[in-house]
Design goal:
single chain; alpha/beta; TIM Barrel; 2 domains; 5 strands; 10% strand; binds iron/sulfur cluster
Length: 236
């Protein structure tokens, strides 16, 4: 367990990872100590990223119309949220949308689609979009976020020039059934592994505040970090 936030930052600079017990200790930081924690975290941020911000631009290839029931999502089955609903943009429409972001300074374009996962035909639409985008903007990075991937789809995306694949684990394995019943935590882990196996940079995050305990939040954080499952055991 660490004594001060700066001690923990120093250790992290030296390549010693934060333990699950220490992550839990961080979550117990009082309001009185919060600015000290923010200052120590800012040291790490400056070391790795300086004062720069990377701009990613998201193009929504398909919106709403999803048959899954992720409880946090406005695009889910039977959602009453007033969102735009449309099926797949054509490659020409998607490239046109992406150019707005690139002109605004984005160095990465994220191609996102709602739904459980793409068919092979839909993956082909995405690869056509990526090829057209990279032909016009060779320096731009492309990330795809299309849901659960089947065998071979990650390789097809990689071959077309996709750099990264975003697929969030969202919450701890031990909390997953409370947020979704139409697919499993393991389905999501499998897709992250497929993306990694095809050479795509895996990008995976989580959502905080879905009735998870602090222990489950730490479990999810470390699972995202390693993209493999860990089980957190409290020392108490
Ligand atoms: S699969 Fe994706 S789009 Fe569908 S409900 Fe879940 S998060 Fe929303």
């Amino acid at each position: 367990m660490f004594k001060t936030f700066n001690d923990l930052a120093d250790r992290t600079f030296n390549g010693e990872p934060v333990t699950p017990e220490e992550a839990l200790q961080l979550l117990e930081t009082s309001d009185r100590d919060m600015l000290d924690l923010v200052a120590a975290a800012a040291r790490l941020r400056r070391e790795h990223f300086g004062m720069t911000v990377k701009v990613n631009y998201l193009v929504n290839l398909k919106s709403g119309l999803c048959a899954e029931d992720c409880g946090y999502c406005s695009q889910r089955l039977n959602s009453g949220a007033g969102i735009l609903k449309y099926s797949w943009l054509t490659p020409e429409q998607a490239v046109e949308q992406a150019q707005h972001g690139i002109k605004g300074g984005a160095s990465r374009v994220c191609l996102v689609a709602s739904g459980r996962g793409p068919s092979n035909r839909e993956v082909k639409t995405v690869t056509q979009t990526v090829e057209a985008l990279k032909e016009q903007h060779p320096g731009v990075e492309v990330c795809a976020c299309l849901g659960l991937l089947k065998d071979g789809q990650a390789e097809t995306l990689s071959d077309a020039g996709v750099d990264a694949y975003n697929h969030n684990l969202n919450t701890a394995e031990s909390n997953y059934e409370s947020i979704c019943s139409t697919h499993t935590y393991q389905d999501r882990v499998d897709t992250v592994e497929r993306a990694k196996g095809a050479g795509l940079s895996p990008c995976s995050g989580l959502i905080v505040g879905m009735r998870e305990t602090d222990e489950q939040l730490v479990e999810a954080l470390f699972a995202c970090g390693s993209s493999t499952r860990i089980r957190y055991r409290s020392t108490s």
